[in-house]
Protein backbone atom coordinates (compact mmCIF):
# COMPACT_ATOMS: atom_id res chain seq x y z
CA UNK A 1 0.00 0.00 0.00
CA UNK A 2 1.35 3.44 -0.89
CA UNK A 3 0.11 6.82 -2.03
CA UNK A 4 -0.78 9.94 -0.13
CA UNK A 5 -1.63 8.49 3.27
CA UNK A 6 0.39 5.29 3.61
CA UNK A 7 3.97 4.24 2.96
CA UNK A 8 5.76 0.92 2.61
CA UNK A 9 7.91 -0.11 5.58
CA UNK A 10 11.67 0.13 5.06
CA UNK A 11 13.29 -3.35 5.19
CA UNK A 12 14.61 -2.74 8.72
CA UNK A 13 11.13 -1.66 9.89
CA UNK A 14 9.12 -4.55 8.50
CA UNK A 15 9.39 -6.71 11.62
CA UNK A 16 7.93 -3.83 13.66
CA UNK A 17 4.67 -3.59 11.72
CA UNK A 18 2.07 -5.95 13.21
CA UNK A 19 0.01 -8.14 10.88
CA UNK A 20 -2.75 -6.30 9.01
CA UNK A 21 -1.26 -2.84 9.72
CA UNK A 22 -0.04 -0.17 7.26
CA UNK A 23 2.31 2.71 8.04
CA UNK A 24 0.63 6.11 8.09
CA UNK A 25 2.62 8.98 6.58
CA UNK A 26 1.24 11.65 8.91
CA UNK A 27 -0.25 11.23 12.36
CA UNK A 28 -3.98 10.65 11.80
CA UNK A 29 -6.44 11.86 14.42
CA UNK A 30 -9.01 9.37 15.63
CA UNK A 31 -11.63 10.80 17.96
CA UNK A 32 -15.13 9.57 18.64
CA UNK A 33 -17.38 12.56 19.33
CA UNK A 34 -16.43 16.09 20.23
CA UNK A 35 -12.97 17.26 21.20
CA UNK A 36 -13.02 18.60 24.77
CA UNK A 37 -11.29 21.92 25.40
CA UNK A 38 -9.15 21.65 28.52
CA UNK A 39 -6.28 23.88 29.60
CA UNK A 40 -3.39 23.13 31.91
CA UNK A 41 -4.92 25.61 34.42
CA UNK A 42 -8.19 23.74 34.81
CA UNK A 43 -6.88 20.20 34.13
CA UNK A 44 -7.42 17.82 37.04
CA UNK A 45 -6.66 14.17 37.50
CA UNK A 46 -8.60 12.15 40.08
CA UNK A 47 -8.03 8.64 41.41
CA UNK A 48 -10.96 6.87 43.05
CA UNK A 49 -12.53 3.49 43.71
CA UNK A 50 -10.39 0.99 45.62
CA UNK A 51 -7.70 3.56 46.40
CA UNK A 52 -7.25 6.49 48.75
CA UNK A 53 -9.03 9.16 46.73
CA UNK A 54 -6.84 11.99 45.55
CA UNK A 55 -6.89 14.85 43.04
CA UNK A 56 -3.72 15.83 41.21
CA UNK A 57 -3.18 19.18 39.49
CA UNK A 58 -1.08 19.98 36.45
CA UNK A 59 1.76 21.17 38.65
CA UNK A 60 1.65 17.91 40.63
CA UNK A 61 2.28 16.06 37.36
CA UNK A 62 5.03 18.50 36.31
CA UNK A 63 6.78 17.87 39.64
CA UNK A 64 7.12 14.14 38.86
CA UNK A 65 10.16 12.85 36.91
CA UNK A 66 9.90 13.69 33.20
CA UNK A 67 11.07 11.28 30.51
CA UNK A 68 11.30 11.10 26.71
CA UNK A 69 9.68 8.08 25.07
CA UNK A 70 9.98 6.86 21.47
CA UNK A 71 7.25 4.31 20.83
CA UNK A 72 5.30 2.72 17.99
CA UNK A 73 1.55 3.43 17.81
CA UNK A 74 -0.98 0.96 16.37
CA UNK A 75 -4.63 1.84 15.68
CA UNK A 76 -7.04 -1.07 15.26
CA UNK A 77 -8.34 0.56 12.05
CA UNK A 78 -5.12 -0.72 10.38
CA UNK A 79 -2.73 2.21 10.57
CA UNK A 80 0.48 2.32 12.55
CA UNK A 81 3.07 5.00 13.19
CA UNK A 82 6.60 4.03 14.20
CA UNK A 83 8.90 5.96 16.53
CA UNK A 84 6.48 8.58 17.82
CA UNK A 85 8.42 10.92 20.14
CA UNK A 86 6.67 11.93 23.33
CA UNK A 87 7.57 13.43 26.70
CA UNK A 88 5.73 12.72 29.91
CA UNK A 89 5.43 10.87 33.20
CA UNK A 90 5.69 7.12 33.77
CA UNK A 91 2.42 5.55 34.88
CA UNK A 92 4.40 3.62 37.50
CA UNK A 93 5.67 6.90 39.03
CA UNK A 94 2.08 7.93 39.64
CA UNK A 95 0.83 4.53 40.81
CA UNK A 96 3.69 4.21 43.32
CA UNK A 97 2.34 7.30 45.14
CA UNK A 98 -1.12 5.81 45.57
CA UNK A 99 -2.51 3.73 48.38
CA UNK A 100 -4.15 0.93 46.42
CA UNK A 101 -6.42 -1.61 48.05
CA UNK A 102 -4.78 -5.04 47.61
CA UNK A 103 -8.02 -6.24 45.97
CA UNK A 104 -7.47 -4.02 42.89
CA UNK A 105 -7.28 -6.08 39.66
CA UNK A 106 -8.73 -3.75 37.00
CA UNK A 107 -8.68 -0.07 36.15
CA UNK A 108 -11.12 2.13 34.25
CA UNK A 109 -9.45 5.07 32.52
CA UNK A 110 -11.64 8.20 32.40
CA UNK A 111 -11.40 11.25 30.12
CA UNK A 112 -12.84 14.71 29.66
CA UNK A 113 -15.74 14.24 27.25
CA UNK A 114 -16.76 10.92 28.78
CA UNK A 115 -14.53 8.46 26.86
CA UNK A 116 -13.46 5.44 28.90
CA UNK A 117 -11.25 2.42 28.35
CA UNK A 118 -10.47 -0.50 30.67
CA UNK A 119 -7.22 -2.28 31.50
CA UNK A 120 -6.18 -5.01 33.88
CA UNK A 121 -3.96 -3.45 36.58
CA UNK A 122 -0.97 -5.48 35.37
CA UNK A 123 -1.31 -4.08 31.81
CA UNK A 124 -1.45 -0.51 33.18
CA UNK A 125 1.56 -0.69 35.48
CA UNK A 126 4.08 -1.64 32.79
CA UNK A 127 7.25 0.49 32.82
CA UNK A 128 6.77 1.64 29.22
CA UNK A 129 3.33 3.19 29.78
CA UNK A 130 3.18 6.95 30.28
CA UNK A 131 1.10 10.10 30.49
CA UNK A 132 2.13 12.34 27.59
CA UNK A 133 1.98 16.15 27.55
CA UNK A 134 4.48 16.72 24.72
CA UNK A 135 4.63 15.40 21.15
CA UNK A 136 7.73 16.07 19.02
CA UNK A 137 8.98 18.64 21.55
CA UNK A 138 5.77 20.70 21.31
CA UNK A 139 2.85 20.82 23.76
CA UNK A 140 0.56 17.91 22.91
CA UNK A 141 -1.94 19.27 20.33
CA UNK A 142 -5.55 19.29 21.55
CA UNK A 143 -6.64 16.95 18.74
CA UNK A 144 -4.06 14.37 19.91
CA UNK A 145 -5.29 14.56 23.51
CA UNK A 146 -3.73 17.72 24.90
CA UNK A 147 -3.05 18.76 27.48
CA UNK A 148 -2.55 15.16 28.74
CA UNK A 149 -3.15 11.68 27.41
CA UNK A 150 -2.27 8.14 28.33
CA UNK A 151 -0.03 6.08 26.02
CA UNK A 152 -0.03 2.28 26.33
CA UNK A 153 2.38 1.29 23.54
CA UNK A 154 1.94 -2.49 23.75
CA UNK A 155 -1.84 -2.42 23.06
CA UNK A 156 -3.99 -0.99 20.24
CA UNK A 157 -4.24 2.77 20.55
CA UNK A 158 -7.86 2.94 21.70
CA UNK A 159 -6.32 2.19 25.14
CA UNK A 160 -4.20 5.35 24.81
CA UNK A 161 -6.89 7.63 26.21
CA UNK A 162 -6.79 11.29 25.17
CA UNK A 163 -7.76 14.15 27.54
CA UNK A 164 -7.31 11.78 30.46
CA UNK A 165 -8.68 12.97 33.79
CA UNK A 166 -8.70 9.99 36.08
CA UNK A 167 -8.30 6.36 37.03
CA UNK A 168 -10.93 4.27 38.80
CA UNK A 169 -9.58 1.22 40.59
CA UNK A 170 -11.76 -1.92 40.60
CA UNK A 171 -11.69 -5.50 41.87
CA UNK A 172 -13.53 -6.77 38.76
CA UNK A 173 -13.51 -6.04 35.03
CA UNK A 174 -15.80 -3.34 33.67
CA UNK A 175 -15.79 -2.43 29.98
CA UNK A 176 -14.92 0.94 28.52
CA UNK A 177 -16.45 2.73 25.52
CA UNK A 178 -15.00 0.71 22.62
CA UNK A 179 -14.84 -2.51 24.63
CA UNK A 180 -18.64 -2.21 25.11
CA UNK A 181 -19.00 -1.55 21.39
CA UNK A 182 -17.35 -4.72 20.13
CA UNK A 183 -13.62 -4.10 20.47
CA UNK A 184 -11.50 -6.77 22.09
CA UNK A 185 -11.17 -6.54 25.87
CA UNK A 186 -7.37 -6.62 25.71
CA UNK A 187 -6.25 -5.47 22.23
CA UNK A 188 -2.74 -6.82 21.63
CA UNK A 189 -1.69 -5.86 18.05
CA UNK A 190 0.68 -8.79 17.39
CA UNK A 191 -2.11 -11.23 18.25
CA UNK A 192 -4.58 -9.10 16.22
CA UNK A 193 -6.95 -8.87 19.18
CA UNK A 194 -9.18 -6.42 17.29
CA UNK A 195 -12.80 -7.30 17.99
CA UNK A 196 -14.52 -9.56 20.47
N1 LIG B 1 -10.74 10.45 24.86
C1 LIG B 1 -10.51 9.73 23.76
N2 LIG B 1 -9.37 9.02 23.67
C2 LIG B 1 -9.10 8.29 22.56
C3 LIG B 1 -10.03 8.21 21.49
C4 LIG B 1 -11.24 8.95 21.62
O1 LIG B 1 -12.10 8.93 20.73
N3 LIG B 1 -11.44 9.70 22.75
N4 LIG B 1 -9.75 7.43 20.38
C5 LIG B 1 -8.78 6.34 20.58
C6 LIG B 1 -8.35 5.72 19.34
S1 LIG B 1 -9.38 4.62 18.61
C7 LIG B 1 -7.09 5.92 18.84
S2 LIG B 1 -6.53 5.10 17.47
C8 LIG B 1 -6.20 6.93 19.42
C9 LIG B 1 -5.86 7.94 18.35
O2 LIG B 1 -4.99 8.92 18.84
P1 LIG B 1 -4.66 10.14 17.89
O3 LIG B 1 -5.95 10.82 17.53
O4 LIG B 1 -3.71 10.99 18.65
O5 LIG B 1 -4.01 9.54 16.65
O6 LIG B 1 -6.77 7.62 20.51
C10 LIG B 1 -7.56 6.83 21.36
N5 LIG B 1 -7.93 7.61 22.50
MO1 LIG C 1 -8.05 3.53 16.96
Distance between the termini: 27 Å
Structural class: mainly beta
| Large-scale geometry | globular
Please tell me the overall pLDDT: 96
Per CATH, the class reads Alpha Beta
Notes on the structure:
The chain is mainly beta and 196 residues long. It has a single domain (38-191), classed as Alpha-Beta Complex (Sulfite Oxidase, Chain A, domain 2). It is 9% helix and 33% strand. The chain contains 4 helices and 12 strands, in the order ββββαββαββαββββα. Strands 1, 2, 5, 6, 9, 10 and 11 form a 7-stranded mixed sheet that branches. It has a 5-stranded mixed sheet with strand order 4-3-12-7-8. Strand 3 (44-49) and strand 4 form a beta hairpin. It is globular, with a radius of gyration of 16 Å. It starts with 5 loop residues before the first strand and ends in a 16-residue tail after the last helix. Bound molecules: ligand MTE and molybdenum atom.
List the helices and strands and how they pair.
Layout: E1 6-7, E2 22-24, E3 44-49, E4 54-57, H1 58-62, E5 67-74, E6 79-90, H2 91-95, E7 106-111, E8 116-120, H3 121-124, E9 130-135, E10 138-139, E11 149-151, E12 164-170, H4 177-180
Parallel strand pairs: 2-6, 3-12
Antiparallel strand pairs: 1-2, 3-4, 5-6, 6-9, 7-8, 7-12, 9-10, 9-11
The protein binds the ligand Nc1nc2c(c(=O)[nH]1)N[C@H]1C(S)=C(S)[C@@H](COP(=O)(O)O)O[C@H]1N2 and molybdenum atom.
Give a quick set of tags describing it.
196 residues; mainly beta; Sulfite Oxidase, Chain A, domain 2; seven-stranded mixed β-sheet; five-stranded mixed β-sheet; 4 helices; 12 strands; binds ligand MTE; binds molybdenum atom
